[in-house]
């Protein structure tokens, strides 16, 4: 598959992220909740002026600069590895790209991001998140899997090279005449 087809993943993430955030922002009042699965999974209307888990609140300029650098780096890296990367790495990178751009657009336009997925585990409430956040997390997981598999492959290659070197050395020793 041509590498630029992977950018469709980013576009799909952007579209789904935009539509869901727009629906939440226009249909729910901030703080309103709709139960999906009892008190475990709720759709809520929440605004986040920070990063993941609400850290770094009110740092709009910082996020715009950092996200611009990250997006440029992702596009550059995707282009550099397009011919050699495994599909799950390209999928992971484009998921992260789509999620980063989705949240960037909100932050640049409104100074905040619309979050709406809320999960409760007993008395613990997981930080509220959105589609872009989900894409970033899944993308990072795929990148980590690729990294782990690549290092495993490199170890196998190194071991095979070591065996080949030992076999060559043994062959050379056997071929040399003794004095």
Describe it for me?
The chain has helices at residues 7-27, 60-81, 87-110, 131-175; strands at 33-37, 41-48, 113-121, 124-125. With 179 residues, the protein is of the alpha+beta class. The chain has one domain (7-153). Helix 2 (60-81) runs antiparallel to helix 3 (87-110). The longest helix has 45 residues, at 131-175. The protein is elongated and about 85 Å long. 23% of the residues are buried. The mean pLDDT is 88.
Offer a quick outline of the entry.
By secondary structure, the protein is an alpha+beta fold. 63% of the residues lie in helices and 13% in strands. A hairpin with a 3-residue loop joins β1 and β2.
List keywords for this structure.
single chain; alpha+beta; 4 helices; 4 strands
The first-to-last residue Cα distance is: 60 Å
Question: What's the helix-strand series?
Answer: HEEHHEEH
Overall tally of domains: 1
Oligomer: single chain
What is the total tally of β strands?
A: 4
Structure class = alpha+beta
EC number: 3.4.23.36
Keywords: Aspartyl protease, Cell membrane, Hydrolase, Lipoprotein, Membrane, Protease, Transmembrane, Transmembrane helix
Function: This protein specifically catalyzes the removal of signal peptides from prolipoproteins.
GO molecular function: aspartic-type endopeptidase activity
């Amino acid at each position: 598959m041509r590498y630029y087809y992977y950018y469709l993943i980013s576009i799909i993430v952007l579209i789904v992220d935009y539509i869901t955030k727009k629906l939440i922002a226009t249909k729910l009042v901030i703080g309103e909740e709709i139960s999906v699965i009892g008190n475990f999974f709720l759709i809520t209307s929440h605004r986040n002026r920070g990063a993941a888990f609400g850290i770094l609140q009110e740092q709009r300029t910082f996020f715009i600069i950092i996200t611009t650098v990250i997006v440029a780096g992702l596009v550059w890296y995707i282009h550099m590895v397009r011919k050699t990367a495994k599909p799950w790495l390209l999928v992971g990178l484009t998921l992260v790209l789509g999620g980063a751009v989705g949240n960037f657009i909100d932050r640049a336009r409104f100074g905040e991001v619309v979050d709406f997925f809320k999960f409760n585990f007993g008395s613990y409430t997981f930080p509220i998140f959105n589609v872009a956040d989900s894409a970033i997390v899944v993308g990072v997981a795929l990148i980590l899997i690729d990294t782990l598999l690549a290092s495993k492959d490199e170890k196998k290659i190194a071991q095979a090279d070591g065996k080949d070197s030992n076999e060559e050395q043994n062959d050379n020793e056997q071929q040399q005449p003794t004095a």
